[in-house]
Amino acid sequence: MSYLFLSCTEKIDTSDGGSADGSTVDREGYLWNAKVYSGQLVRYRPDGQIDRIIEMPVKKITSAVFGGKNLDVLFVTSMSQPPLPRFPNDNQLRGSVFAIYGLGIQGIADARFMG
């Protein structure tokens, strides 16, 4: 297994108004990042290029993690507070956990915290 570490000068593009928030990695070594305030779940290839973007039903998404029996369900959380006037459509679904099925991608098991 190999790993890619970004240097301190490499950044995730935030020109759409979103900010990089919670991330996870899949079995193919791709990084999934929840871009809070843009509502985009972005999958980055190991070379840093965007592989795909999933538009979520809320703008304030906060984290992503693979789960399910086969680690093939991608769970995405959203921020519940504070309600922001610039995101009126988030009101009904803020603070939700979304499950994305059928991606054909599996995650990797996270190490358990022992301390």
UniProtKB/TrEMBL annotation:
Residues 14-79 form the SMP-30/Gluconolactonase/LRE-like region domain. Keywords: Metal-binding, Zinc. Binds 1 divalent metal cation per subunit. Pfam families: SGL. The active site is at residue 21. Its cofactor is Zn(2+). A divalent metal cation binds at residue 21. SUPFAM superfamilies: Calcium-dependent phosphotriesterase. Belongs to the SMP-30/CGR1 family. This is SMP-30/Gluconolaconase/LRE-like region domain protein.
